[in-house]
Amino acid sequence: MYKLVKPLLFSMDPETAHHTVSGGLQTFCKLWGGKKLLKSVYGFEHPGITREVFGLTFKNPVGLAAGFDKNAAYVEEMAAMGFGFIEIGTVTPRPQPGNEKPRLFRLKADEALINRMGFNNQGVDVAAERLRHLKNRRSVVIGGNIGKNKNTPNEEAVNDYIYCFDALFDVVDYFVVNVSSPNTPGLRALQEKEPLTHILNTLQQRNRKGDVSRPILLKIAPDLTDSQLDDIVDIVKETGIAGVIATNTTLSREGLKSAGRLTTEAGGLSGRPLTKRSTQVIRYLADRSGGAFPIIGVGGIHTAAEAREKLDAGASLVQLYTGFIYEGPGLIKRICKKIAHG
Fold it and tell me: Would you identify the family this protein belongs to, as annotated (predicted)?
């Protein structure tokens, strides 16, 4: 079915297509039997695909990566599509419009996207309120991806992460600290060892309410050197956070089939060109750490085989975004079947 509507969607501006699909899906799910129909078409359940990772139970290991549902507006709809977990955000303390449009571009020949969205979101308080009123709150694992506002200086960034952490603590199951987006000026400088350790330690110190704590993960860029990846391994061990998400989008444009103006657009590249590099980073972290912490693998997953490669490289779970756009919701089911049946 997705093959029939994809040409129409790809004839639209990418951001317009995103809102059209999301809004249409939301309307469909409000119809009697809408969610049930989606689950019957796209869902797949099997005891062999359940995962226990950082203290949480995932009904399957295929998640929706951050960026698709920035404001926690489509959690139940995405869960009906068969995702085992949904990561909302990136959210910031204060609402912000993001960068000027156009800011999202398709590289069709490469099955890729370039985005420079710039953490456009309605603010963490809006997302938290939506999550608080979900009807089936426990039907799917929910992650909260948190960042800093564009106009917050890096030396004050920790305060933005604290605000988002406190706002979402009661309504998400795990957190992701995003210091790796290339679209907020200076953000990636927070991946350096000293500022990153400070942010993570600060969050860990307040990571308890009664007897409840939340797994905290770090999302990293694919453009880090081996030396920087070694620092990441050390930081995860030193701070005691739960794990790593590898990887965010890349600044590299190496090996693209596309040509012309699109390839020179500023922003982070995602999709097939990232497949190999993200898997390399997963394998490096897993080998270097001796499997000391879980890794969520994301980047260029367009087939069930590519998801399997990331799991074999050391990932415990995987996430989709660009592959989901190009391949449609059937990709989730295909991956789950591949994992269940080998």
Answer: Belongs to the dihydroorotate dehydrogenase family. Type 2 subfamily.
DSSP class of 65: P
* Helix ranges (DSSP H) in 147-265: 157-168, 193-205, 226-239
- CATH number, position 331: 3.20.20.70
Catalytic choice (22, 40, 181, 278): 181
201 marked among binding-site residues: no
In 3D space, the residue among 161, 135, 137 whose CA is nearest the CA of residue 148 turns out to be 161
Please tell me whether 159 is known to bind a ligand. no
pTM (2 d.p.): 0.97
Block mean pLDDT (10 aa), the chain, length 342: 91 97 95 95 95 98 98 97 98 98 97 98 98 84 98 97 98 97 91 95 96 97 96 97 98 93 95 98 98 98 98 98 98 97 82
Q: What's the domain count of the chain?
A: 1
Is 118 annotated to bind ligand? yes
Domain of residue 43 covers 2-341
